[in-house]
Structure formats: C-alpha cells, structure tokens
Amino acid sequence: MPHLSRLSRALASVLLAFAATAHAQSYPAKPVRVLVGFPPGAGVDITTRLFTPKLAEALGQQFVIDNRPGAAGNIAAEIAAKTPPDGYSLLSASAPIVMSQALYKKLNFNLERDFEPVGMMASAPFILVVHPSLPAKTLREFIAIAKSRPGQLSFASTGSGSTPHLSMEMLKAQAGINIVHIPYKGTPQAVPDLLSGQVQAMFANTLSVLPQVNAGRLRAIAISSAKRSAAAPQIPTVAESGVPGYESGTWFGFFAPTGTSRDIVGKINAELGKIDASAEMKAKLLDQGADPVTMTPEQMRAFVKNELAKWAKVVKMVGITAD
Hints:
Layout (H helix, E strand, L loop, with lengths): L1 H25 L5 E5 L6 H17 L3 E5 L6 H8 L7 E6 L1 H8 L7 H4 E10 L1 E5 L8 H10 L5 E4 L5 H13 L4 E4 L3 H10 L4 E5 H9 L4 E5 L26 E8 L4 H16 L1 H9 L3 E2 L4 H22 L5
Parallel strand pairs: 1-2, 1-3, 6-7, 6-8
Antiparallel strand pairs: 3-10, 4-10, 4-11, 5-8, 5-9
Helix pairs in contact: 2-10, 4-12, 7-12
C-alpha cells in the first residue's frame, strides 16, 4: 500500500541517519591515514606532524602520515580521491592543490567535486632567499642583478606548478626579469642545492628556511605576504620593496573524500579548532614562521573557491602549463 511504502522510506531514512550518527560518535575506531603530497621536511609535512599527535590524543587513535610526494602534491590527492569516504583516509594539502586545477590539463581528481573541506591548520608566507655569494641584500638589488644578467641566474622550486614556482613566475612577470626555473620534488631536495650555490634563489615557506636564514647560511631579501610576518618582522615585503600589489603564500588544511559523513568532518574540524586555539600550538607555529588559521568546513569551501579563481588568473597571466 502507498502509505506503507512512504512509511518504510521514512523509517529507512531515520535508521540511516541514526547509523551515521552512531558511526560518527564511535569515530575513529581504528588508525586514520593522512596522505601528504610532499616529502618529510616540506612545509605541509612539518605542519601536519605538529597537528596529528594532538588529533590522536584528542580522538584516541593514531593519525598516521603517509608521504606520497610528486607532481606538486597531485599523486597524494589522486590516491585520496579514490579512497572510501569513511573518515579513515584524509588528505593534508597546501596551496599547490588549487593551482593544479589551472595548470594541469589532465587530472584524475577535481578539488571541488572529489573532496570535502575539513578544516585549516595554518598559513605561512614565502621568504625570497638567495645564496650569500649573490651580492644582493635587497629585492631591488636582486632585480637589478637579474636584469643585468638575463637568463644567467636560476631559482629552485618545489616542482613545476608549485606555489613557490608560481610565486617566482609572478615576480618575474611583474618585475620584468628572466631567471631560469629548476624544479625539485620538494623543499628538502631544493634547499641543499641552494645552500651549495648551485641555484641562486628560491621562494620557500618560512617553516623550511627560516632556521637557515637565522644561521646565516641563506640571505632573506623579501617576504611574499601583504604585511610583514610576526615571525620575521625584519624582512620587508615584496610589495614594499618595489613590486607594488604583490602577494603570495601558502596554507595547510585537511580534506576528506566527497561523501564523508558531515558528523565526522565536523568532529575533526572541532578538534582542529581547539588545537589551533591552544597557546602551545600558537607558539610552535610562530616559531616555524606560520600563523594558526581556523575555519568551518563552509568557510574553507568558500576560501578554496576564491583561491581557485585567484591562481587561475595568475596561471593565465604568466602563460604556463604543467605536463
């Protein structure tokens, strides 16, 4: 009978909702894998390793990092997009994941379609660092040297299409300089060549190179954020150093495969907010040159949408693509 059919459907909906809630309440019942698209020592890896022990402590299960470096983080994202949406595989990603959508013609994932934003951890500007052998102590001097030696200087990045790569390409376009791009798999691979002088410059996140700057092994000449960083207030911004309007940086956040329970997403998001609010985490992030960032899943969705539009414009302006 029709009314029994409607009643059955309603009862089924209630039971499914009850089951989902019960699942979220018992979550996590086993270790959670966190995929990271860059090698140990990269900014997103460092940040994730600050947060996962705190998540484990709060939720009673291990959060195990699985580094899958390559293709500006796309390898890890493709793996994560294909995992079951049960909350036991998460993706810890940074700004390159939005750039990939504009750079790569063929991707096996779509950020907005295949992922649920879970929550943010932190943001960090980039420092433009140079090898001490290069006689540039300011950005203006660096630009002047590059203009006098077109195509002779080189810069490292964490891969074609990565945020450091596009940050330098944006600077090149705005300052009218020509320096050669040398891509690496990640910051840990790039920094040794920078320290040895095989490449002369790099935009690197503060978490990775500030210790080298403080030790005098690299020279910091500008910071990419719109305002000076509290972690390194002595470093002037690119914008105040002769390239007005310039702004770049990275961020670190968690994503889950589309279809993951809202209750599970909300549970992780709430814990991330608590961790970010702690004095201990604020101090640790500041020590690494980063700032804590808290967003609801809805706020993060809007943020990602804006980031996609912003970097699509940059890619179009620079006129580059990645294989």
